[in-house]
């Protein structure tokens, strides 16, 4: 049996059929009991956030046969009229020690942050307008607020280190580049903000490509990719994580809600049309024939490369696993 890495496999697939675009159907459609709000991939573990207060934890070492290892259930909340609701989980962040931050809705129209640690669920912070969290060390996490403030928080000591306003444009997404120790945020303006995570200081603002809201960003190798409301995928090549070396643009026929990139930065995936199809492109040759992932029923909210699979989560009840090595 041949073993192909993703970086060698994609150029091979792109040339199948004498250069014609290749269409793939899901190898597996994993049905979830509740609607999915986001996915987090940490090593061989997939965290599935749902709209009904359940965080599902899957072992995906074998992507064709995921195993549900754990279900973390958040407590219900009550509204002003004493009606009980299960909280929507917006997203999660898990560190190398297996500690998970969970951002969820509450009865005050704000959000609570829970910490799942050593099998126990703890309410860490309440009534916050936090949109996303990322770990930058085993004990420290950065919270991104809807107002586009960021805050560095020591989870172990429960102390706030700083809280800075990055821009007046509202927040969409944030990620941490661990190799270069750099933080990126984006939002309403379409700009990419490069930030020193230790101080919260703005290092650089890049506004070369997207001129409207960027919904999501992803990073791999030396490339950052953006999903734009202006039907553009931005591809930024960065030296040392901060210096802009090159920009490229992929234009689509529909709003781009989600993007993904392989760990080495060789392959880019993005939602490319109103049917929910995902296109995969070679980041070094964006004009080359592309792979299209078909059969997705919903709007993608998460795209990950894992081994020789692409994993797609949608605003629905299914997760799709596409095998890029499935031509047998």
Shape verdict: globular
Mean pLDDT: 93
Content-based structural category: mainly beta
CATH fold descriptor of the domain at 1-31 and 221-328:
Methylamine Dehydrogenase, Chain H
Radius of gyration, CA atoms, in whole angstroms: 19 Å
Percentage of β-strand residues: over 45%
Largest sheet, described in full? 5 strands, mixed
User: Uncertain regions: pLDDT < 50 for 5+ in a row?
Assistant: 1-18
Label the CATH architecture of the domain at 1-31 and 221-328: 7 Propeller
- CATH superfamily assignment of the domain at 1-31 and 221-328? YVTN repeat-like/Quinoprotein amine dehydrogenase
Q: Total number of helical segments? A: 1
How would you briefly describe this protein structure?
With 328 residues, the protein is mainly β. Helix content is 3%, strand content 54%. It has a domain at 1-31 and 221-328: Methylamine Dehydrogenase, Chain H (7 Propeller), CATH 2.130.10.10.
């Amino acid at each position: 049996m041949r073993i192909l890495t993703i970086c060698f496999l994609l150029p091979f697939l792109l040339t199948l059929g004498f250069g014609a675009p290749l269409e793939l159907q899901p190898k597996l459609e994993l049905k979830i009991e509740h609607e999915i709000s986001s996915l987090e991939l940490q090593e061989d573990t997939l965290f599935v956030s749902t709209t009904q207060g359940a965080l599902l934890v899957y072992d995906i070492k074998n992507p064709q046969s995921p195993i549900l290892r754990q279900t973390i259930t958040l407590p219900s909340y009550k509204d002003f009229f004493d009606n009980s609701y299960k909280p929507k989980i917006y997203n999660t962040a898990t560190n190398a020690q297996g500690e998970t931050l969970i951002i969820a809705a509450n009865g005050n129209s704000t959000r609570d942050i829970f910490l799942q640690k050593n099998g126990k669920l703890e309410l860490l912070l309440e009534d916050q307008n936090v949109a996303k969290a990322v770990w930058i060390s085993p004990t420290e996490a950065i919270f991104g607020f809807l107002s586009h403030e960021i805050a560095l928080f020591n989870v172990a000591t429960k102390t706030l280190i700083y809280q800075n306003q990055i821009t007046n444009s509202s927040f969409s997404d944030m990620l941490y580049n661990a190799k270069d120790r750099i933080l990126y945020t984006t939002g309403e303006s379409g700009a990419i903000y490069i930030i020193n995570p230790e101080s919260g200081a703005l290092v650089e603002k890049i506004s070369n490509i997207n001129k409207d809201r960027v919904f999501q960003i992803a990073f791999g190798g030396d490339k950052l990719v953006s999903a734009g409301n202006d039907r553009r995928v931005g591809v930024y090549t960065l030296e040392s994580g901060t210096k802009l070396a090159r920009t490229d643009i992929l234009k689509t026929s529909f709003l781009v809600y989600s993007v993904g990139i392989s760990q080495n930065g060789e392959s880019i995936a993005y939602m490319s049309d109103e049917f929910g199809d995902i296109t995969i492109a070679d980041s070094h040759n964006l004009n080359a024939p592309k792979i299209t992932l078909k059969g997705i029923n919903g709007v993608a909210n998460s795209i990950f490369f894992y081994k020789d699979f692409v994993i797609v989560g949608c605003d629905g009840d299914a997760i799709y696993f596409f095998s890029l090595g499935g031509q047998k």
